[in-house]
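Let us work through a complete example step by step.
Step 1: write down the sequence.
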Amino acid sequence: MTYKLPGICLLAALIMIFLLTVFPPPIHAEEPLSEAIYPTSNVGGYVYLNDEKIGFATFLIGQGYQLQSEDEHFYHVSFGNGLLYVDKNYAEKGSFLNPGKLPKGKSTVIPKKRIHVLSQPQSGSPSLGYLNPDIRVPAIQKINGYYEINFGGHKGYIAISQTNPDNGIPVLMYHHVLHGKAVSEHADNNMAIEYIQFEEQMHYLKEYGWRTISMQQMEDWLSFQSNLPDKVVAITFDDGISSTVELAYPLLKKLDFIATSFVITGKIRGSSDYWIASDLQYVGLKEIRNTTDVFDYQHHSDNMHLYQPGAKAGMFTTKSYDAIKQDLENGKVQLGKAFSSDTARTKYLAYPFGHYNQTTIDAARDAGIHLAFTTMTGNVMLSDSPYELKRQGIAPYHSIIDFIHKLEGTYKQYKLDFTLSQ
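Step 2: predict the structure and record it as tokens.
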């Protein structure tokens, strides 16, 4: 019997080579790798806020955490909607199996105490690390009684029962501060408060650990680019009345606070002396330049801080898109005179009287405004529209208890509050 297996095998081999040449097998790409840090001991992860180091988390020895960037002294590790800083002396670089980009958290919660971050949404699963209390943690979603979060590039899980809901960031709204209000022409003005009342409120913030933030820091948080701790507050003043530099500025500077002054740019002259014969004085270019270590000067309209004649609404809701946009652009030029003609720096707005509509929003956005504030009562939440942000107006009739409730987002809104912007 004659066997032809060698010939058959040769033919099969030739056919296989042909098929592989014409139809190559699919190439299975390796899972993408990115850089990581591996702590050499349990190490803290920090946020820096106005040069203050704030502990947010503890990363565990030997565990890998996604590295986003670094500088001379710190590794920048993925966490929440931003980064945490880790001291390079306590970690080494390695590779990280990238699970894909995690979604941003659209709401925030606050741990009640120092808590475990688990690797699975179930009790007893391995720990990824710890979270500190009094921080804002962006939550991606709820799963089986847990919040899913970004913890060092991992999907981490924290028990809902171990957190409190976040009532948002208070943006305090002031206008005029003065001595002797009761015997002044502003005795019945709900936008003017006695200096001693303002002083009590500022000292409360300092004593109880509240930190002041800038509009840029607020914008970074609202655009899901950064993390913020609990007990942060934005202090704002509307109109640009000179009492903000004469009375508020020295106190804020002493307490190491920062604030935002929304100025009516059409009232800006060389100095506040221009208004000496008026019932109110307004800051000028001189005062603006001299107080930028505390105040960030931003927009409150140019020549539209007025009611439309014959109407019960401000010009920002009665004028055309083109007119509103032009007013905002004119104001940026006027305010820019205090900042070497830099108009791009003016990107935050307080609506005159709190009046706005969709046309106003469109004009503001197209004029380069990034955030806009109303006079509606409430705190700012992470998911809020950047052009409809609430504030907590402070009036003479607000007690220190009212003030505390406003900070905490638990203030009961009274009808009287609507008169604050009138």
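Step 3: interpret the result. Confidence is low (pLDDT under 50) at residues 1-5, 22-31, 418-422.
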